[in-house]
Specification:
homodimer; alpha+beta; Arc Repressor Mutant, subunit A; Dna Ligase, domain 1; 2 domains; 3-stranded mixed sheet; 5 helices; 5 strands; DNA-binding
Chain lengths: ~160, ~160
DNA sequence: GTTACTGCAAAGCGTTTGCAATTAT
DNA sequence: ATAATTGCAAACGCTTTGCAGTAAC
């Protein structure tokens, strides 16, 4: 699925529900599906303003919320305040590792893990709608240094 | 580990680091370790004020942050704005299911899942510090109705 | 023409902070 | 006595909202 197809999917979704396909929504969707980075709302606004500096913050927030509730975009709580988003249309589900030292986000997929999550929900009689797994890790990159203002996270506490 | 022992552990932790064991911190810790519910900061404040209505919001937030970074308490993003907390001192690690309809939080443990998470991080060469898994489900309780203002979550979108 | 959407600025909400007074050590 | 902690209220950062004007249908 390429960016053009993704845009069409979004447009179709909007029109089917009686929402209008405005120039702003189109621009925002283009930017969202055109980047493969994780971005927050403010960064998305800046990227959009790079193309058309009339777009308002409110519209970016409103459109992002639609894309998220439609399941086209997913938010990840990184603990920095606010969420970071990524588009997931046309991408296989994946989970995240978040380096606690430098803030880097890594993606991974694991079929066994997915199966297990499904099985657990089913075993308890629930329907699994979605899920999010975040592994907080310490990454070993050479450039990994305190974007969060500290050099190493606190040792996992062993008070018991 | 009972509540008294948990309090002692917290007190010891504080004193060892040169923090003072004030009446407010003691009260807050008593309330935190005395409840087995998930609570948010505001609810904790109210519970504390039930005992001593002089406690300030600022102190509750400050103490809660200490307890969290010490690893005595864990926060869970429920998507309602703000986090819900639970004390984990003396409790085995568990993950959460969150009913998208009524907001109910369910806990579960799964050894196989835990092993797999460890293995994944290790395989990529990272040290796993902590992790959080949240399964968003639809619960089947009779009383399960729209605490979130809707009756059923949106169908998982099948646009592809 | 009708109705949804936009941009703006103000308000909202949970949380954090500066500071003078208080309290634990 | 000293230095950490408290309560207060103001500020904060991110997000949402009311409204009058604008654009999609």
């Amino acid at each position: 699925m390429n960016a053009a197809e993704e845009l069409e999917t979004v447009e179709r979704y909007m029109r089917q529900r009686g929402y209008r396909w405005t120039s702003q929504r189109k621009l925002i969707a283009e930017v969202v599906f055109g980047t493969h980075e994780h971005f927050n709302a403010e960064e998305l606004l800046e990227m959009c303003r790079g193309v058309d500096n009339q777009v308002s913050r409110a519209t970016v927030y409103r459109t992002l919320a639609m894309l998220e509730s439609a399941g086209f975009v997913e938010g990840l709580d990184t603990g920095e305040g606010g969420k970071r988003f990524e588009h997931i249309l046309g991408h296989a589900h994946h989970d995240h590792m978040l380096c606690q030292v430098c803030g880097k986000i890594l993606e991974f997929q694991d079929a066994e893990l997915e199966k297990r999550k499904e099985a657990i929900a089913r075993a308890q009689g629930f329907r699994l709608l979605s899920h999010s797994l975040k592994l907080n890790v310490e990454c070993l990159d050479p450039g990994c240094e305190g974007r969060f203002g500290r050099t190493r996270p606190e040792e996992p506490s062993a008070h018991e």
